[in-house]
Design brief:
- With 447 residues, the protein is an alpha+beta fold.
- The protein has 3 domains: 4-103, Rossmann fold; 132-201, ATP-grasp fold, A domain (Dna Ligase, domain 1), CATH 3.30.1490.20; 207-446, ATP-grasp fold, B domain (D-amino Acid Aminotransferase, Chain A, domain 1, 2-Layer Sandwich).
- Helix content is 35%, strand content 26%.
- The protein contains 15 helices and 20 strands.
- The protein has helices at residues 11-23, 40-44, 63-73, 89-97, 107-114, 116-125, 141-151, 174-192, 249-266, 296-303, 307-315, 394-407, 417-423, 427-430, 438-446, and strands spanning 4-7, 27-33, 47-52, 77-79, 101-102, 155-159, 169-171, 197-201, 207-216, 221-233, 236-242, 269-279, 282-289, 332-339, 351-352, 355-357, 364-368, 375-376, 383-391, 409-411.
- Helix 7 (141-151) packs across helix 8.
- Bound molecules: adenosine-5'-diphosphate.
Amino acid sequence: MFQKILIANRGEIALRVLRACKELGIKTVVVHSTADADAMHVRLADESVCIGPPPSRDSYLNIHQIVAACEITGADAVHPGYGFLSENAKFADILAAHNITFIGPSGDHIRIMGDKIEAKRTAKRLGIPVVPGSDGAVSEEKEAKRIAAEIGYPVIIKASAGGGGRGMKVARTEADLEVALATARSEAGAAFGDDAVYIEKYLEKPRHIELQVFGDGAGRGVHFGERDCSLQRRHQKVWEEANSPALNEEERARIGGICANAVADLGYSGAGTIEFLYENGEFYFIEMNTRLQVEHPVTEAITGIDLVHEQIRVASGGGLSVRQEDIKFNGHAIECRINAEDPRTFTPSPGTITHFHTPGGLGIRVDSGVYSGYRIPPYYDSLIGKLIVHGRNRVECMMRLRRALDEFVVDGINTTLPLFRDLVGNPDIANGDYDIHWLEKYLAKAD
Ligand code: ADP
């Protein structure tokens, strides 16, 4: 087992990983920018190293400084959290070259899944259902038209190097296609320095359903069920649940089995999330994230398994603590992402939190790095906490969520809490009847 883990992140996820390390008796080092000197993860860690000024590229993305911090403190492993360097294959390679363990998959696996065309090809080869579309990059208009006619309109043009929902264009007719192809390519080139694009069938009303998987790096793979993350705004997840209100046990076991076998075949090591669009009973692979996800606590709530413990165990060579048959799904869990944002316009609302009071009681978990008097720096993303609620079934979970939202107090800044108080009383949400467009339509109506 590791002696000392360096946590290369900030905010709630740095604290989340720190808690797991403490439970496992592993010493912790955190790195931080000058803007985060007062952060909770810095206060609670065994050691901390300031690695640079506020902009991420000078601190949390500065590989040299982070490796130097490992050398100075004698850390033998790095947990990257999510975002920042968590899906940076070069970072994983550099750590390996310094004999420091990256708590995550190999650089090669990160690379495959980071290229969407390559990822889709790999998924298909591993038996994962994919969205019908082009086999690889498409640059010729004639070829694009032939493929679109074959799969049928509407189609979506996507950037191979894409991320964050950028570089995607929908074409409903052959006339649209010409423009969509040209704009997607130029946007992709500008945003990612790579103008390769591919074509997929555009699904009109899918849900976003993702499978939590784990590989032990030695040919064993398991799945921890699914999460439904269909409630999104501008491709950003807002509310996540496990299990999905749309799946039955048989579908869960079927797609879970396919995903577990795929990570086993790949020789994958650590946590991963295989994301699908789901429509009319069919799953369509869109991407795989090779890291821990923001929404992992809903899976922990229904399985009772600490996924960060598992990541650390696997990375240290200790293997998974569970077999597939040990993983049981109990009740229902919902996570609300509490952002420091105006609940109507979603513009960031940095500033000082004058009062912070979190709900408690059975089935309530709050993951947050903030406290009363904390000043939110303007440099990073606006997530200030996550409320995760568990109940024996979805109805109980929703009742408890409504109560917990009433108790939650964040004064001094705007937060997305009022949005969740609205959502929890909405009949569609109560019925689990929503797709990936539901939230944007709801917000447009409220305007
Ligand atoms: P990114 O990595 O940029 O987030 P994804 O491939 O994960 O891109 O897609 C992001 C979102 O775009 C999906 O959650 C979905 O809302 C939409 N999307 C992507 N592919 C399709 C498709 N074939 N049909 C309909 N919507 C899609």
